[in-house]
Amino acid sequence: MRKKEVEMSFSAPELSSLGAIPLLTKSAKNSDFLNRLSCQIKEWWNPDLIIHNMQDLVRQRVFQIAAGYEDADDCDLLRHDPILKLAVGHTPEERDLCSQPTMTRLENHLSHLELWNIRNLFVNHFISSYKEEQDRIILALDDSNSNAYGAQQLTLFNNYYGEYCYMPLFIFEAQSQRLVLLLLRPGHVNKQTNVCGLLKKLKSRHPGIVSIGNTPLLSFMAMPCSLATNLWNRP
Prior knowledge:
The protein is α+β, with helices and mostly antiparallel strands. Helix content is 37%, strand content 11%. The protein has two domains: 21-109, no CATH class; 112-233, no CATH class. The protein has nine helices and six strands; from the N terminus they run αααααααββββββαα. It is globular. Residues 210-235 have low confidence and may be disordered.
């Protein structure tokens, strides 16, 4: 480095710390899942006044969460980010992405029917991930506390964890570790709350995905996927 000229510039264009987002963007391009998800949400605003379409809003929200910015307030911070703009489908020079009020209105506008359709989309996506019909599918269900702050809706006190939190439920296929479905639940529920009802709904909607028969499926409900797989593989 001797006799090498060193130049310092303080006029560089805007930089971004979301370096991993392009990898997720490439993965998303190989799947039409985000576009299909956005199609489950009905646009209710005046079409003549639309600035951010539903596809852009969904992509922005998903990539922000993936980058660790799960709060809608983070939209105000990241709406100018060049990497996030590229992930949504715009160039850094184009208009900014949506702000917090727009994203909050979207999240609070979702109906029960739209949420049910999104739930079915996840299950159908899981089923379509198999190239051929499976003889047996084991569902492993596990929940995890997600501590929250402030007075967010459904952040209730959980006596086991001693925290105000959400208790999201994760459903995986135990052998392949593929995600089937995830559900956001109030903080006061336990692992077994309404699990049987959920399985019945899955079975009624997709008769081939859940087959209890003589399989001790219920014993896997409250166990992590790795434990469920180990138990199933025991002689």
